[in-house]
Amino acid sequence: MRYDNERCQVCSEAFTPEDDIVVCPECGAPMHRKCWKENGGCVNAYKHGEYTWTPSNKSKADDFDKTRTPGIICPRCGNNCAPDMLACPNCGMQLMSEEEKRGNSRSFIPDLSTEDGRMNFFMHGVNAKSDEEIDGVKIGDIAVFVQSNTARIIEKFKRINKDRKITWNWGAFFFAQFWFIYRKMFKIGIVVLALSLAVSIFRMIPEAELISMTNGYIEEMRTVVEESQSGKISSDEFESRAKDIYAGMRKKLAENPKVVLQYTISTAILFIKNIACGLTGYWVYRKRVLENVKTARGKSGNDGEFMTYALRYGGVSALLFAASYFGSQLIIEFLSGYAM
Predict the structure, then answer these.
(1) Tens digits of per-residue pLDDT, 273-302?
(2) Cβ distance 86 to 28 under 8 Å?
(3) Facing residues of 113 across strands?
(4) For 299, which DSSP code?
(5) Cα distance between residue 203 and residue 199, in whole Å
(6) pTM above the 0.85 mark?
(7) Which helix (H) or strand (E) holds 137?
């Protein structure tokens, strides 16, 4: 459908033939793709169900006789629809004109439908059709299983599928095992959590000794500074004592190389662990999602059963994320009390 003499529902600017246009699947309102993204969807979302956009010029549907005039044939029900209709009035299937099928039009209708015609709201913002595939799995099914932040994650999956390269994941880097648990990858999350706890326990004793040394150094320096400020010692004496305190601190560290080495190694292991999670997070999650979608489709007789399975085993778990995070912190705090 062309939108000559029509205006964007967000910015009110008139469309040009070069504009990239998005059409709301609910009300049919046209918008610039940029405006759609900046607005987070249709500007008329609050009145969906009551409002349907109509062109300012006369629609071809007004004079269309489907018994005599060939129009757009609905691929789902076979209904003969007017050439400028956005969706089939019989079954609601989104329609494309012959020009759009040939790829000559830049209009884009977000694909939010499942195979049985129900809305797949997890496809919101995803720049792909639900029947496109990643390694034999439909993107619509992937979106149902991912549920949260689907647009970004599916783009990452598509990039991995295309380039076969690792893509960076900041969430997995900063939260590591907790990110895996959040995304319901419990096995790998528990393994990484156990590794983190073991290394953290290994680091507690040297960390406690280093903290004790540092606190002693700070206390001695505070005493010297207070004496200098009160005039009890001269500036030369202050400089001399400060150097002695610093030298004493370095001597203690030199006398305990195992403490420094143990702390350094354990800290490096934890940092490398986070880097590894950041590098492999999306790759591991993609593998799990594809496997689970295939399993769900194999066990499900229809979309309804698949949806039930996906909602149960897919998505995220903020509760388990919080429980694992604060639980591990409590364990570390409890054990560090003995180390101190």
Answers:
(1) 999 999 999 999 999 999 999 999 888 877
(2) yes
(3) 119
(4) H
(5) 6
(6) no
(7) strand 137-138
